[in-house]
Design brief:
The protein is of the alpha+beta class. Among the domains are: 32 residues; 92 residues, Multidrug efflux transporter AcrB pore domain (Alpha-Beta Plaits), CATH 3.30.70; 39 residues, no CATH class. 39% of the residues lie in helices and 15% in strands. The chain contains 7 helices and 6 strands, in the order H-H-E-H-E-E-H-E-H-H-H-E-E. The strands form 2 sheets. A 4-stranded antiparallel β-sheet has the order 2-3-1-4, covered by helices on one side. A two-stranded antiparallel sheet has the order 5-6. Helix 3 crosses helix 4. It is elongated, with a radius of gyration of 30 Å. It starts with a helix and ends in a 10-residue tail after the last strand. The relative contact order is 0.09.
Length: 239
């Protein structure tokens, strides 16, 4: 007896089963959670490393390659890809879907520690990693420009006024400012003048750093309180 014959011979059962299916589907439909950016863990980890001044070729051979060799020993890795630019390398690790992302992060951290001795000694900042979350994708990107004020002033406006105000809006999780050009004083040295005074570029840089500190210059220890003395010795012009 086929299914169609059974349904024809027993119409009551067929109707009841159809109603039960419709009711169950309706209940399931209204109970399914819906979100524009659902929260879930993706088995992808991104590793970044920087070595200022190194060419993309050097970053690929001296940084990306040792990292990839260490990452290849981690269980559950499906794809390893890297991208090297001037002074920076990014390595993306994609794991199998059944791999626990938290345990994978622990393995990645251990691999970074093992690879540390194979990386260039000039790399003073160790590589870092982060778990990729699609919910971190920006929802709105605001571009700012002005024909009348400088880029540093635009950056100051974005960081100190716009970003704090946007962060107070209900539903906003995070506000980031990218592409900033912060105010800075650029020093152009005169090689002949330095040579006449037997001053090297390293000594000049050390003197500028020493004269441009932003820290307490002393304290006053009174009978009841301790007062910290601050000054503003930061450089604003050439002297």
């Amino acid at each position: 007896m086929t299914l169609s014959e059974l349904c024809i011979r027993r119409p009551v059962m067929t109707v009841l089963l159809s109603l039960a299916t419709v009711i169950a589907g309706s209940v399931a439909y209204f109970k399914i959670p819906v979100a524009a950016l659902p929260s879930f863990n993706t088995p992808i980890i991104s590793v970044t490393a920087s070595l200022p001044g190194a060419s993309p070729e050097n970053m690929a051979s001296a940084v990306a390659l040792p990292l990839e060799k260490e990452f290849s020993t981690i269980d559950g890795i499906k794809i390893i890809s890297s991208n090297s630019t001037l002074g920076a390398t990014s390595v993306t690790l994609e794991f199998n879907n059944d791999r626990d992302i938290d345990k994978a992060a622990v393995d990645v951290q251990a691999a970074l520690l093992r690879a540390q001795k194979r990386l260039p000694i000039e790399m003073t900042i160790p590589p870092s990693y982060r778990k990729i979350n699609p919910a971190d994708t920006p929802v709105i990107i605001i571009r700012m420009s002005s024909p009348s004020i400088s880029l540093s002033e635009i950056n100051d406006y974005a960081e100190n006024l716009m970003a704090p105000n946007l962060s107070t809006i209900s539903g906003v999780s995070q506000v980031n400012v990218y592409g900033a050009k912060r105010y800075a004083i650029r020093v152009s040295a005169q090689p002949d003048a330095l040579g006449n005074r037997n001053i090297t570029m390293d000594e000049l840089a050390a003197a500028i750093n020493k004269a441009n500190t932003n820290s307490p210059i002393g304290t006053l220890d009174g009978p009841r309180q301790l007062i910290t003395i601050y000054a503003n010795p930061q450089l604003v012009k050439a002297e």
